[in-house]
Amino acid sequence: MYNEIIDRAMAGIYVHIPFCRSKCYYCGFYSVASFGLKESYIAALCREMELRANYLPERRADTLYFGGGTPSCLSEGEVEVIVGNIREIWDLPDDAECTIEVNPEDVTPDKLACWKNVGFNRLSIGVQSFDDEVLKRINRRHSACQAMEAVEAARKAGFDNVGVDLIIGLPGVGQKDLEREMEIVNQLDISHISVYILSIDSNSVFEKLTQQGKFSPQEDDVLADHYLFVSDYLKSIGFEHYEISNFAKDLKYSRHNTAYWRQQPYLGLGAAAHSFDGESRQWNVAHLKKYIEHLAAGSLDFEREILTDRDKYNEYLMTNLRTMWGIGWRWLSERYPDWWKLSERRLPAYEAEGWMSREGGRIRLTERGWLVSDRIFSELFV
To answer: Cβ atoms within 10 A of the Cβ of 266, count?
Structure first.
C-alpha cells in the first residue's frame, strides 16, 4: 500500500482565493462575500510570488492547488494571469497534479476549457449535499441537479480526475437521506470523494446559531454510525478509504494533500495561507485589506513559528495516523527513542479496542480509530 505515488519527495503550491458570492453557514475558512477587491488582490498575489520565489527548493512544485473561498468565481482572464505568473517563477512538470476547487454553478463550457488550457487536471467540486432543501438550509447557491450536471460536464470536457465533497451531519439529514446520497454518488463518474463530519467552526454562522441555542449538531453516536456507513458503502463500490475524510478510486489520491500529511514542503500564497519549509511554519495575515496594503508597499504581513523536535514528533504522529499508510514505528524508535517508548506503551489498549492495527513495520488506525483520533493523538503526544 505504501507506494511510489506518495512515497516520493514532493513540494506543493497552495493559492488561496478568498472570494465568495455568499457565506455558507458551516464554513469557518477565511473568505469575504464581496468581489470588490478582487483586482487588487490578484495584483498583490502576483507580488507575493515575486517576493517568495525562492521559498521552495529548486523553484519546483509537484502540485498546485487553488482553494478558497471560491476559486471558480475567478474569470478566465484572472485564472490565466495567476497561473501564468506561477509558471514563470516555478517549474511545474508535465505530470504535476493541478487542482482547482469549483462550485457547481460556476461550471460552464468556457471555464472548463480555460481550466484545462492553463493546466488544471483535477477538479474538486463542492457539492456538500444532493438534497435541495438541505442545500438551502446551509446557504449553498446550487441545486442537486447542477451538481450532477457539473460532474458530467467536467468528464465530457476531458477531466479524468474529478472529485466531490460531501458533509455528514447537516441539519435534517437522517440515515435514509444518507443512503439516497450514496446511491447518487454511485451513479457519478468520479474518482475521489471527501466526506467531512460537520464541525462547528469558529466564525461560522452555525457557531453563532449554536451559541444562540438555534442550532444543535447531531449526537456523536449518530455521526459515528453515519461515518461508518458511508465508509463501508464507498469501499463496496470500489473506493479506497485512504485518509480520515478521503476516498479514492484507481490510486487517484490527492497528491497535494497527501504531501501535507507527510510533512513535505509547501508554499501558501494569499491572505491567510500557510507555508511549511520543513523547519518552520508561517501564515499570512487573515485580512484582505492588510494583505493588499502590505504587498503594495513591497512587504508581506505574516507570522512564523520555528518547530522544535517535539513539535515535529507530534506532527508526524498526528498527520501520518490520519492516513491508511500510518506511521513507521522503526523509524520513530530510531529517531526519537525516548519519546517513542512513552507513546508505544499506549498502543496495546488501542489495539484491544479495535482502534489500531499493526502490519509489518507500520501502525495504522482503523475507521473506528479515526472516529476517536483526537483522543488518541492527545494521548500519544509528548
So the answer is: 24
Domain ranges in the chain are: 12-261, 309-380
Is 12-261 assigned to CATH 3.40.50.300?
no
Backbone angle region of 104, left / alpha / beta, with phi > 0 → left and psi within -120 to 50 → alpha? alpha
pLDDT tens-digit map of 19-65: 999 989 899 889 999 999 999 999 999 999 999 999 998 899 999 99
Q: Is 163 helix (H, G, I), strand (E, B) or coil?
A: strand
Unique residue bearing C-alpha cell 521559498: 55
Query: Residue 52 belongs to what H/E stretch?
Result: none
151: CB partners within 8 A, 6+ apart: 125, 162, 164, 188, 189, 190
Residue 100's SS3 state is: strand
Q: How many whole angstroms separate alpha carbon 291 and alpha carbon 155?
A: 37
CA-based R_g, the chain, Å: 21
Contact call for residues 276 and 263 (beta carbons, < 8 A): yes
Cα–Cα distance, 119 to 86 (Å, whole number): 12
d(CA 280, CA 80): 31
**How far apart, in Å, are the Cα atoms of 80 and each of 77, 187, 234, 350?**
5, 33, 36, 50
| Contact between 55 and 275 (Cβ < 8 Å) | yes
Q: Are strands 192-197 and 246-248 parallel, antiparallel or unpaired?
A: antiparallel
Name the grid cell of 66. 487553488
Q: Tell me the CATH architecture of domain 309-380.
A: Orthogonal Bundle (1.10)
Q: Could you give the CA distance from residue 1 to residue 251 in angstroms, rounded to a whole number? A: 10
β-strands 122-128, 97-102 pairing: parallel
Note if the pTM is more than 0.90: yes
Residues 6+ apart with CB under 8 A from 309: 336
